[in-house]
Design goal:
The chain is mainly alpha-helical. It has helices spanning about 25-45, 55-70, 90-105, 120-140, 150-170; strands at about 10-15, 20. Helix 1 (about 25-45) packs antiparallel against helix 4 and helix 3 (about 90-105) runs parallel beside helix 5 (about 150-170).
């Protein structure tokens, strides 16, 4: 199977459920930024213990980003074809991130000052991924769709990645560092 189609040689790309738009159109810009975020999360995941908690959490949100990108790549007239949780971001997906943020925050005392990234490879990679997610969120703001949870999901995802980075720093960072 060839991975190239030549369909995009004219500067357009296909949408989910059909149709073509310019590669510079807002939804494609959003998906490009989200694709970068997903790759950054994957790079961070490469530092995590295989099969461990951080690995599983990252795989879960990377899969969520496929759902998000499907929604973004759907034209307005085809939005009715989207399926909650499969090709459309839901409130439950956002709430799941909030629950994970709360759980991770409870397991690790959160810093009381700005974090200096670079404590270890995994947390540093997560901090980079968080900044890429934030950029994706800023790009997504340009394509707000009424009733869509894309923006809230990306907003929570950046918080989740920050909390996950603090959690990944390990038990020695799960206590207050005041007075160190």
């Amino acid at each position: 199977m060839k991975i190239y189609t030549r369909g995009g040689d004219d500067g357009t790309t296909g949408l989910y459920f059909g149709g073509r738009v310019a590669k510079t159109d807002a939804p494609i810009e959003v998906n490009g930024a989200v694709d970068e975020a997903q790759a950054a999360l994957g790079a961070a995941r490469a530092w995590a213990e295989r099969g461990g908690e951080v690995d599983a959490l990252l795989v879960s949100v990377e899969r969520d980003l496929w759902v998000l990108m499907a929604e973004v790549a759907t034209s307005e007239e085809n939005r009715r074809k989207l399926v909650d949780g499969a090709s459309k971001v839901t409130a439950a997906m956002v709430e799941r991130l909030e629950s994970e943020i709360d759980r991770l925050s409870a397991a690790s005392e959160m810093p009381r000052e700005f974090v200096v990234p670079g404590e270890d490879h995994l947390s540093a990679a997560l901090d980079v991924a968080r900044t890429v997610v934030r950029r994706a969120e800023r790009v997504a703001v340009a394509r707000r769709v009424e009733g869509s949870y894309v923006g809230p999901y990306l907003n929570r995802l950046s918080d989740f990645v920050w909390a996950l980075a603090r959690f990944a720093e390990g038990p020695r960072h799960r206590t207050a560092r005041a007075g160190d």
